[in-house]
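Please predict the structure of the following assembly.
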Amino acid sequence: MRKNHQALKNTGLFVLFAGPTLLAFTVVFLIPFVVGLYLTFTKWDVITNDGSFVGFVNYVEVFRDKTFLTQMWFTIRYVFFTVIISNLLAFFIALALTSGMRGERWLRTGYFTPNLIGGIVLGYLWQMLFSRVFPYLGQKYGWELFATSWLTSTDKAFWALVIATSWQLAGYLMIIYIAGFSGVPRDVVEAAKIDGAGHFEVLRSIVLRLSIPAVVVCIFLSLSRSFLTYDLNLSLTKGGPYNSTELATYHIVQKAFLSNQYGTGQAEAIVLFVIVAAVALTQSYLLKKLEVES
Amino acid sequence: MPVRRLSHLLKHALVYAGLAVFLSPFLIVILNSLKKTQHFIENPVAWPDPARFSNYVDAFEKMNYLRGFANTLLITVLSVLAIILFSSMTGYLFVRFDWKVNKVLFFVMLAAMTVPFQVIMIPLVMIYGNLGLLDSKAILIFMYMGFGVPLGVFTFHGFIKGISYELEESSFIDGSSRIRTFFQIVFPLLRPVVVTLVVLDVLWVWNDYLLPSLVLLSPANRTLPLSTYAFFSTYSVDYGPLMAGLIMTIIPILVLYVILQDHVIKGISEGALK
């Protein structure tokens, strides 16, 4: 009797404390996730709203879809340069802002500002700059590089995407690097300097090594965020010129919601997920090996 | 030490010049939001003379700013409240009760945090579309809750683990119920993590485009990012009002940032290094 009472009480507690959370999580995440996996093995007909089981056909389709492969390669290049540029910028800004400068707090606030805006606003902001402001300056001062709008050529539109993303990401990563550097003990740095270690030496063998956890987090964040970019792509280049700057997510959205190929679109989403996960895990595994074992 | 002094100066110059470059896109857009479109095309770096505020009035009406603002505010506030409330309760349950089901659920939520929205969006639209549940702000808020609770539960779980049980115990002895004890004793202690989560979730929900673009179909439901997109697609060459529209979209979150800047910075760094 007593045991039953306790079980009933526990069930009540569980429903009260976890019920709403689990309901939302299950209905919004778990069920669609499972349905999504199932979807990749069917050929879904949007009109009859019915699917026939087709096995791995959709996954084979993904690797036969030349456009998807080209765009995946485009995405990987975009991620590569974005991660490197944003992290280098963030690292050095953070280094300067933890060296005891006057007005550090104010500067930090300023550098973070681009992160307040979403991808859509970010894209339109830079669209104005690349299509109007830079060409004006380029023509006026004879800078060949800027004389025409960057958004009309594939190569330059690629760099426009990288620059706009890095501009935003750098301020975000900077905050994390600053937090990471504050974990580097000052006396270790001082001792090294007294021992005659140069500026660069201190940076490489002490600061960088001791802040590996922050580096791992930053690379992880910048990797996953840039792999999944969509809004910026839509507002800055709209995939153009001639669909040459469509990132992976852009392609998936088009495939699913414009061409109504749910099965293949979903299979591509899963392939994208697997690539992001593999790259992110590999980098954190490799970088963690560099961590100081002390 | 003149070399030292020189490098010191150089560093200051670089950091401040860098900030100026960083903020210049905003300044250029503000400058041009006050110009006639024709003046912007002739010279986008000239000072606006005279400053025209009519672009703002124009954009305010054409993008139906008030409606977008109200929708975004409603959706953001309710989503974030729901995430904080329910995930703190669940995080508490998972820490204090060592049941097997709790451990399994916690693990599933952790795993869910690695799955990007891209993997969910197609079945999500399919299922909710078939049920006729799209195009509703309430459903969108519910979805934000579903996507937001894993991070919430994880964050609260980590924090509550460090709170000693003694405080609660004495409250039970006084005859207080579990739920009452949670809200009176435990929840007030969670303030630092609540701040972190509010910052991360507000920035996410307020600025999100992809999810609302799939869920909210009718213009009456549009959030600010959706109305910005619609405005730019419709009036693609009317640059003056377009730029005024951009600035107006940025202003609410900028005001919030100016007031809460230290909390925002703290929230970001603590949210990331956990």
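DSSP finds twelve helices and two strands in chain A. Chain A has a mean pLDDT of 88.
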